[in-house]
Design brief:
The complex is a heterodimer of chains A (454) and B (491). By secondary structure, chain A is mainly alpha-helical. Chain A is 68% helix and 3% strand. With 491 residues, chain B is an alpha/beta fold. The chains are: A mainly alpha (454), B alpha/beta (491). Chain B: InterPro entries: AAA+_ATPase (IPR003593), ABC_AA/LPS_Transport (IPR051120), ABC_transporter-like_ATP-bd (IPR003439), BCA_ABC_TP_C (IPR032823), P-loop_NTPase (IPR027417).
Chain lengths: 454, 491
């Protein structure tokens, strides 16, 4: 898909080129769908092979691809990354920058008010907690991928370390969440350094593969070290978080929150508490990240992303700089993990598959590497969006009652991601905020920043 | 250029530096000194190994052999080849720039300069911990670093663009910014890799100004690689010329400019033109100058002038194992060879057996030779026996130039050298301006063997044509037509 799109970008106006691209895409679709859709096989009643052809469907699919690629090419000419600035009228642009500058505070106020607005809607609160967990994971990974430019495909391993740290310490020793939380962070950071050491010399694809393998190793250890982790069955009965030991959220406890505060018993309290807890953890992550960016270590991370050799020529110890990035990112992953364990009350290796790493990485890339606001928005879109796509019942009115919209959820989601990446190749917020300025703070355009080479 | 006497004001001393990549010899036994407070230029044609020298000095490569000593102003001394890469800027205070500019293009100019002050700020921020909690010590250090950054932005004439991304700057400004960034590390030695490459004359002049300002106002010594001769000649105090990883010249810009080896190396003259270049730029003095033995400070083999041992010798080419620069490749060596041949031509040309040596020598020297000098050598002959001189270049250590000189002194045959006593050796050494070289290279022993008609390892190579001599066929002991030896007439 990439090569033809580059061609058309150069000969943007030519109708023959447009048709050529569409024809090529239609041909590819024909080859793919002629077998995938065109022939349907099934085991017959006696076990024999029965098959029938569906050429009508193939034709309609190919036609759809043909028409779709023409529309897509035309769309790219309209809102393509190169021409976006020219086509958007200045009034709209200034409006967008106004919105952009107030987006972060508006989002923050909204997130603070979510439990107030939706106090009786447990589904929305649950979803909001999930989104915030991913926001925190995204911000944690952002330190490694977005700032230091080290492609980490095994981030979920630190999430797992954090989750199992709390699960094991709380179930075996009865330690409080508030003791286990920093411990989980420290343990995850320790594993981050441990991972960091062997991969220091690796860059780019090689680093990505080794980190991916590290994520799988952690998961396989969790599955197979049955004596400690209880294998695939996981650990259940993880205690709830208490309100700093003053109040608990178990109805049977003497210091149950409703008893202490003399209010009606409700399970919503714990949800609201969890919501503010993860929000607090998110804000801590954001605060630390923003502070670190303005400290020499944060600048060194970004410099490392831009040019490692130049860093060394300036006397920056790239080894420790990389290790601190790994450790800091892992620490936030560990915090998020222990929160996850506390919220679920149950952890199993199933929660820490590679797909989780991929989703977190997608959030970081989609949001714009290095940008906190962008990543928060991306987490909302990615996690909230997939959930929202469950609510597609209105499509039944269009396609008839036999239509099951849930089946098309991931398809729509994938399409949305492709469109976003075509429209904003460097993520929602591609520009970079400078960490210091002499006269005025001007965002650095994404065309100058580098993604890092691992 | 005596290294020992200038030990104290030498900021950087490179001794016998060699860098080999597999079989490729990028730098072969290079020695030079950069003096404190001076601008030392390292020049040479493309592929001469200049950037490799830089990479060795700044720790990006670990040299195969040799020692790089850096003497800081506070008296501490660092062996750069032993320091890890990032500690060279941090501890030894050596900063560098790159041939292909390496800025942090997505960071603003100011941020680029702040990153350069990393180590200082790291300490001030209590290795992040104190800084994270906003201690005042860090804020003060941060403000100071901003001031230093502003200072260097002003020097580089970039303060107006302080908040723009570095990648947005025009090329010349990026060069200046890279220098400003290097200066923000507070270096004592600044290594600039082709700072003027790709600059227009105006930008080049601005760069000169900046470098002179650094030299006069900061006390930072500068080592620079440059192709732009207007920069080199205007600002440098000392020039070292490399060709194929060896030093071919070393001195002030004026002397280097007139060095025929340098001119040949730079102009890349053809074989036929070498002589023209020589006659154009070099008179007798220059040619005589070529015959002076290697400077002690340069170490063995740094000069490719005669007897200094060509590249092939020091890097062990004799076994034919090493991949190295072909003999004909070095233009500077061609000049040496040519100079040697030009000088020895008068000796060699009268190949007719009947002609006496008196005619063989140039008129000037012919008069001098038998009469005045060489009183110390006992067994002189007026003319070669039978009118045919032995090919003395078959002795390792005697090149065509030495052969000519020996001939002038009435030494024509191996048995004459073979019969030398200690006094004779001393006399010959005095005349040839060598110290102990004849004894070290066992000329007498070699000559005895050759006189008996035997071969030495070296003479076999001469006979096989592996070593250029002034004699067409080395096996014949007659003075034959000169061969245009491409490399190192001396061996």
């Amino acid at each position: 898909m990439k090569a033809p799109s580059i061609n058309t970008a150069k000969t943007a106006s030519g109708i023959p080129a447009l048709l050529k691209t569409a024809c090529v895409n239609a041909l590819i679709a024909l080859v793919l769908f002629s077998l995938m859709v065109g022939v349907r096989t099934e085991a017959g009643s006696d076990g024999q092979l029965t098959y029938w052809t569906r050429f009508g469907e193939v034709a309609s699919l190919v036609a759809a691809v043909f028409g779709g690629s023409i529309v897509l090419e035309l769309l790219k000419q309209w809102i393509g990354p190169s021409g976006a600035e020219k086509l958007v009228p200045p009034a709209v642009r200034s409006g967008m920058s106004f919105v952009g500058s107030y987006l972060a505070p508006a989002l923050l106020i909204f997130t603070l008010l979510v439990p107030v607005i939706f106090y009786d809607q447990r589904y929305i609160l649950d979803l909001a907690i999930l989104v915030l967990t991913y926001v925190m994971l995204g911000w944690g990974l952002n330190v490694v991928v977005g700032l230091a430019g080290l492609l980490d495909l095994g981030y979920v391993a630190f999430y797992a370390v954090g989750a199992y740290s709390y699960a094991l310490l709380a179930t075996n020793f009865g330690w409080s969440f508030w003791i286990c939380l920093p411990l989980a962070g420290v343990l995850a950071a320790f594993w981050g350094v441990l991972l960091g050491f062997p991969v220091l010399r690796l860059r780019g694809d090689y680093l990505a593969i080794v980190t991916l393998a590290f994520g799988e190793i952690i998961r396989l250890v969790l599955i197979n070290w049955r004596e400690v982790t209880n294998g695939s069955a996981g650990i259940s009965g993880i205690p709830k978080v208490s309100f700093f030991g003053l109040m608990t959220f178990n109805v049977s406890d003497p210091n149950y929150i409703a008893k202490v505060l003399h209010i009606a018993t409700s399970s919503a309290y714990y949800k609201i508490f969890l919501y503010y807890l993860i929000l607090g953890l998110c804000l801590l992550t954001a605060f630390v990240t923003i502070r670190l960016r303005r400290l020499p270590v944060g600048r060194a991370w970004e410099a490392l992303r831009e040019d490692e050799i130049a860093c060394r020529s300036l006397g920056i110890n790239t080894t420790t700089t990389k290790l601190t990035a790994f450790a800091t990112g892992a620490m936030f992953g560990g915090f998020a993990g222990s929160f996850f364990a506390a919220r679920q009350g149950f952890v199993s290796p199933e929660s820490f598959v590679f797909l989780e790493s991929a989703i977190i990485l997608a959030i970081v890339v989609l949001g714009g590497m290095g940008s906190l606001v962008g990543i928060a928005v991306a987490a909302m879109v990615m996690i909230g969006g997939t959930e929202a796509l469950r609510e597609l019942d209105f499509l039944k009115q269009i396609f008839g009652p036999d239509f099951t919209p849930e089946l098309y959820r991931m398809l729509l989601f994938g399409m949305a991601m492709v469109i976003v990446m075509l429209w904003k190749p460097r993520g929602f917020v591609g520009s970079r905020e400078p960490t210091a300025f002499l006269k005025e703070r001007r965002a650095v355009s994404s065309s100058f920043t580098k993604e890092g080479h691992g | 250029m005596n290294a020992t006497t200038q030990m104290n004001d030498a900021i950087l001393q490179v001794d016998h530096l060699s860098m080999k990549f597999g079989g490729l010899v990028a730098i072969g036994d290079l020695s030079f000194t950069a003096r404190r407070g001076e601008i030392t230029a390292l020049i040479g044609p493309n592929g001469a190994g200049k950037t490799t020298v830089f990479n060795c000095i700044t720790g990006f490569y670990k040299p195969s052999e040799g020692m790089i000593t850096l003497n800081r102003a506070d008296g501490s001394t660092y062996l750069l080849e032993r320091l890890p890469n990032h500690e060279i800027p941090a501890r030894a205070k050596v900063a560098r720039t790159f041939q292909n500019i390496r800025l942090f293009s997505g960071m603003t100019l100011l941020e680029n300069l702040l990153v350069a002050q990393h180590n200082k700020l790291m300490k001030a921020s209590g290795y992040t911990v104190l800084g994270l909690f906003g201690f005042s010590g860090y804020r003060k250090a941060s403000a100071e670093s901003m001031e230093l950054a502003r200072h260097w932005l002003e020097k580089a004439d970039l303060v107006d663009r302080a908040d723009d991304p570095a990648g947005d700057l025009p090329y010349g400004a990026q060069r200046r910014l890279e220098i400003a960034r290097a200066m923000c590390t507070g270096p004592e030695l600044l290594c600039l890799d082709e700072p003027a490459a790709g600059l227009n004359p105006k930008e080049s002049a601005a760069l000169n100004e900046l470098l002179m300002d650094i030299k006069h106002n900061t006390g930072t010594s500068i080592l620079l690689i440059e192709h732009d001769m207007s920069v080199v000649m205007q600002i440098s105090d000392h020039v070292v010329v490399l060709e194929y990883g060896r030093k071919i010249s070393d001195g002030n810009p004026q002397s280097v400019r007139t060095d025929p080896r340098v001119i040949a190396a730079y102009l890349g003259v053809d074989d036929e033109e070498v002589e023209t270049v020589l006659t154009e730029v070099g008179d007798e003095d220059v040619i005589e100058q070529l015959d002076i033995g290697p400077d002690a400070a340069h170490g063995p083999g740094t000069s490719s002038s005669y007897l200094a041992g060509p590249v092939t010798d020091t890097v062990g080419h004799s076994d034919g194992e090493r991949v190295t620069v072909s003999k004909g490749a070095s233009k500077a060596a061609q000049v040496d060879a040519r100079a040697a041949t030009v000088v020895s031509k008068p000796v060699a040309k009268p190949a007719a057996p009947a002609k006496p040596a008196a005619k063989a020598a140039p008129k000037k020297t012919a008069a001098k030779a038998p009469a005045a000098k060489a009183e110390g050598i006992s067994n002189r002959l007026a003319a070669p026996r039978g009118g045919k001189a032995d090919n003395l270049t078959r002795i390792k250590g005697i090149g065509t130039v030495n052969e000519k000189k020996l001939n002038e002194h009435g030494i024509f045959h191996f048995d004459q050298i073979g019969a030398w006593k200690k006094a004779d050796v001393e006399a010959a050494e005095a005349y040839l301006a060598f110290d102990g070289r004849i004894a070290r290279e066992e000329w007498v022993k070699q000559a005895k063997l050759l006189g008996r008609g035997k071969d030495t390892e070296f003479s076999r190579r001469v006979d096989a044509g592996k070593v250029a001599t002034s004699h067409a066929s080395a096996k014949t002991t007659g003075a034959a037509k000169p061969v245009s030896g491409k490399r190192g007439g001396g061996k």
